[in-house]
C-alpha cells in the first residue's frame, strides 16, 4: 500500500485534483481510499468537512467519518489542542491511517490550506508526510509572480525537510498565463531540480463558486431568486461608484456578484442591466420594491446581509467552489483534467 499526500494553498484546487486522481486510479483497477487528518474550521458548529464527505461518498469508504478527519485547523487552534500532547495526536493520526489503509492499494491524503498549518503541534504537512511515509505532490494556483515565489518557498522547505517530493502541479491556470507558466515558471522550477507533473488550464465550472455557496458563507436573507442559486459567480465587484460610471464598470465583467447597499437603487439597476449572477445588499438595508421586481424579471438572486461592505468582502475570501457527491459533471471533469493534463502514469509508477 502506498500513499500520496497532496498539499497546496487556498483555492489551489487540491480537492479537485484528489478526486480526479482517485477516480483515475480506481478506473485503472486500484483500490483507493482517502484521509484528511487536518480539516479547516468553517465557523459553523457541527458542520463536517465537505471534502471528506465528498470523498467518503464517491469512494464508498466504510471507515467512520471521525476517523477520516481528526483535527480542525483555525486561527486559534491552540486553545483546543495542547502542544505537550503532540505525540499522542500523531499516534491518533497513525492509528486512523492504519484503519483507512486496510485492504487498499493507494491512500490519497489531502492537506490544509497551507503547508505550515498546525506546525506548533507537529501536525504540519511535512511532519505528517514523513511519519506516514507518504510521497508528496504540491499543487498551486499561480496567478502572478508572487504566488510563484510562494510555490518555490514551499517546495524548497519540503526538500530541506527531507520529504519524499514527487513535484508540483500548476492547477487551474488562467488562459492569459498559460504561456508564461510554460515558458517562464516551469523552466525556473526545473532548473532548481523540481519535477512538474502537470499544467491544468482553468475550468470555470470547477473554480467559480455558485450563488448557493456564497449564501452558505454569508448567511443573511434571500429576498429574491431562491430558485437560481446554482448560477456561477466568476467575479466580485463593489458598487460604490457614481451612477454615470456604474454601467460601464459592470459591463466589463460577466457572471458577477455585485456588492452594494440596499439604498443604492441606481447602482442596483445598472447591475441588473448587465450579466449579474447575484446582488449582495449590505447593512440590512432593504431595497425598493421596484428593485426586487426587476431582479425577479431578470432572474437574479438578491441576498440581504447585516454586514458592512468591508466585512462582507472579508467573509467572501472564504468562498470556494465545492464539488458535491451528486455532481456527476464535476466528477467527470475532474477525472478528464487528470487524464489530459496530469502525468498520472508517472505518479502511479512512482507510487508502485
Explain the overall architecture.
The protein is an alpha/beta fold and 352 residues long. It has 2 domains: 2-202 and 324-351, P-loop containing nucleotide triphosphate hydrolases (Rossmann fold, 3-Layer(aba) Sandwich); 211-316, Udp-n-acetylmuramoylalanyl-d-glutamate--2,6- Diaminopimelate Ligase, Chain: A, domain 1. It has 15 helices and 13 strands. The chain has helices at 14-27, 50-58, 65-68, 86-100, 125-132, 145-160, 178-191, 204-207, 211-218, 243-250, 265-272, 289-298, 309-316, 328-341, 344-351, and strands at residues 2-8, 32-35, 38-40, 71-73, 106-110, 135-140, 164-173, 196-201, 221-224, 235-238, 256-261, 276-282, 302-304. The strands form 3 sheets. It has a 6-stranded parallel β-sheet with strand order 2-5-1-6-7-8, sandwiched between helices. Strands 9-13-12-11-10 form a 5-stranded mixed β-sheet, sandwiched between helices. β11, α11 and β12 form a beta-alpha-beta unit. α1 (14-27) packs across α14 and α10 (243-250) runs parallel beside α11. The protein is globular and about 60 Å long. The N and C termini lie close together (8 Å).
How are the SSEs ordered, and which strands pair?
Blueprint: E1 2-8, H1 14-27, E2 32-35, E3 38-40, H2 50-58, H3 65-68, E4 71-73, H4 86-100, E5 106-110, H5 125-132, E6 135-140, H6 145-160, E7 164-173, H7 178-191, E8 196-201, H8 204-207, H9 211-218, E9 221-224, E10 235-238, H10 243-250, E11 256-261, H11 265-272, E12 276-282, H12 289-298, E13 302-304, H13 309-316, H14 328-341, H15 344-351
Helix pairs in contact: 1-14, 10-11, 11-12
Amino acid at each position: 500500500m502506498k500513499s500520496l499526500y497532496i498539499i497546496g494553498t487556498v483555492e489551489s484546487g487540491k480537492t479537485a485534483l484528489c478526486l480526479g486522481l482517485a477516480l483515475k486510479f480506481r478506473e485503472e483497477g486500484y483500490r483507493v481510499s482517502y484521509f484528511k487528518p487536518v480539516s479547516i474550521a468553517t465557523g459553523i458548529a457541527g458542520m463536517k468537512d465537505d471534502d471528506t464527505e465528498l470523498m467518503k461518498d464517491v469512494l464508498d469508504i466504510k471507515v467512520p467519518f471521525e476517523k477520516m478527519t481528526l483535527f480542525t485547523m483555525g486561527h486559534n487552534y491552540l486553545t483546543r489542542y495542547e502542544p505537550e500532547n503532540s505525540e499522542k495526536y500523531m499516534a491518533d493520526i497513525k492509528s486512523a491511517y492504519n484503519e483507512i489503509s486496510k485492504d487498499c492499494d493507494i491512500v490519497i491524503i489531502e492537506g490544509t490550506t497551507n503547508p505550515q498549518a498546525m506546525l506548533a503541534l507537529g501536525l504540519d504537512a511535512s511532519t505528517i508526510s514523513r511519519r506516514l511515509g507518504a510521497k508528496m505532490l504540491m499543487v498551486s494556483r499561480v496567478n502572478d509572480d508572487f504566488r510563484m515565489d510562494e510555490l518555490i518557498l514551499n517546495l524548497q522547505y519540503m526538500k530541506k525537510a527531507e520529504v519524499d517530493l514527487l513535484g508540483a502541479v500548476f492547477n487551474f491556470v488562467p488562459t492569459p498565463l498559460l504561456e508564461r507558466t510554460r515558458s517562464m515558471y516551469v523552466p525556473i522550477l526545473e532548473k532548481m531540480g523540481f519535477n512538474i507533473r502537470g499544467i491544468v488550464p482553468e475550468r470555470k465550472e470547477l473554480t467559480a463558486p455558485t450563488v448557493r455557496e456564497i449564501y452558505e458563507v454569508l448567511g443573511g436573507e434571500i429576498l429574491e431568486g431562491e430558485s437560481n442559486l446554482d448560477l456561477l459567480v466568476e467575479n466580485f465587484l463593489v458598487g460604490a461608484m457614481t451612477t454615470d460610471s456604474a454601467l460601464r464598470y459592470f459591463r466589463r465583467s460577466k457572471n458577477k456578484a455585485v456588492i452594494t447597499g440596499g439604498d443604492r437603487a441606481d447602482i442596483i439597476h445598472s447591475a441588473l442591466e448587465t450579466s449579474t449572477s447575484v446582488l449582495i445588499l449590505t447593512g440590512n438595508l432593504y431595497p425598493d420594491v421596484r428593485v426586487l421586481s426587476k431582479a425577479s424579471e431578470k432572474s437574479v438572486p438578491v441576498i440581504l446581509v447585516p454586514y458592512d461592505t468591508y466585512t462582507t468582502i472579508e467573509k467572501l475570501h472564504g468562498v470556494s467552489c465545492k464539488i458535491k457527491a451528486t455532481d456527476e459533471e464535476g466528477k467527470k471533469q475532474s477525472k478528464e483534467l487528470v487524464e489530459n493534463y496530469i502525468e498520472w502514469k508517472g505518479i502511479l509508477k512512482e507510487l508502485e
